[in-house]
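Input for the complex:
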Amino acid sequence: MKDLSSKIFKEIKTKSIKPTPAWCFSLKEEAIWSISLISIFFMVLSFGIIVSIIFETDWEILDYGHITLMEYLTIVAPYFWFAVFVCSSYLFFWIIRKTRCGYRIERRGLIIFSFSIIILMAFLMQIRGYGLILDKFSSASLPIYDSYEEKIINNLIEPEKGFIVGRVVMQANNIYIKDYNGQLWLLDTDNRNILNYASSCQMVMVYGKVENNAEIIPEKIKSVYKSQSLIEYHPGCK
Amino acid sequence: MNINNISDEKLIDLVLKDDSYYIYLMKRYEGKLSRYIRRLLVSSDEDIEDILQEVFIKAYKNLNSFDKNQKFSSWIYRISHNEAISYYRKIKARPSVVSFEEDFDIFELLPDQTNLEKEAEAEITKMSVAKVLDTLKPKYKSVLVLRYLEEKNYNEISYILKKPKGTVATLINRAKQLFKKAAEKQIPKNERP
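Predicted:
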């Protein structure tokens, strides 16, 4: 190991090696912080939407017996947002360690701190209704994405079993439900109370008994989303 | 200007103005780093030279990223540690025996080393300690080497290994326990100090 320093110095000179400019390191540090912030933003966003969907999930559908719990969970589970949450969490916990002071952060403290923020923000999103807005927005902007509402419509409508989803249509003193195939279902009821609850064009789920392939005798009418003005209609109520 | 009297940090400022000063910085650390790498991995002089060359070239390229709130020695130890670990992964073989030929520090902690009659016994102990240390996983071996042979404090070890201080403390405790267990297995009772 004779005069190694001189040998290395000669190598540096021969290869014209130069120190990387300071701005490159500053830029790298800023990029790492930006990615950390973006990843935590997506963690909050995805967790908020997951919480909103869990709150919105209507477990009463199971009471009508045409679907099992597992089937229902498979349909309504927000896979897309689970994937976004897992990826952004992994990215966040990985990249935060790459910051200049990241090595000092204790993993347990970081997990507790970040999850406290995420849970708090997610519940704020749920209270303000942003989770559902983002769910619908994602559906409109991403071709592969189905909102909670679309999942219900695409997978659960079974008119032959007395379950339809559609919009309320009022025509000549009759109340119809226009489902997603464009079919009109006459709500066979004398009870006009529904008019107090169901404004025209509102999206509703109707459980009941189908007759003549065009009428439904409702047992229960509900809004698709719990957080929207809920229609709770029972045939007996006045 | 006497180069030997100026701090590492000032020397770096000089290097950034005139690269010929880098040779002084390398000379300061050449011995310390080669000893550290030797303690982590047992390799030939040629291998250690190669690793050191990589370390000094990398350090030179990244000189502007050096955080002046830290010690330069910790920074260059960090680079050396990373290079040594990369080398270890490349060769994919466990290091065989740690060379303790130059290492008297740890044995200063052992009682009554000055007695000439016990020198031979100390030599045996030295080799046995090296063997025991070598049975530990690299992460435990690294912390013991840094703490007890390189005499780095917890902050420095935390910076070198890029681990939180709490984790370093846990690793050192765990490494000490493992070292004790391994020593009990490997060193016969009559060879123990």
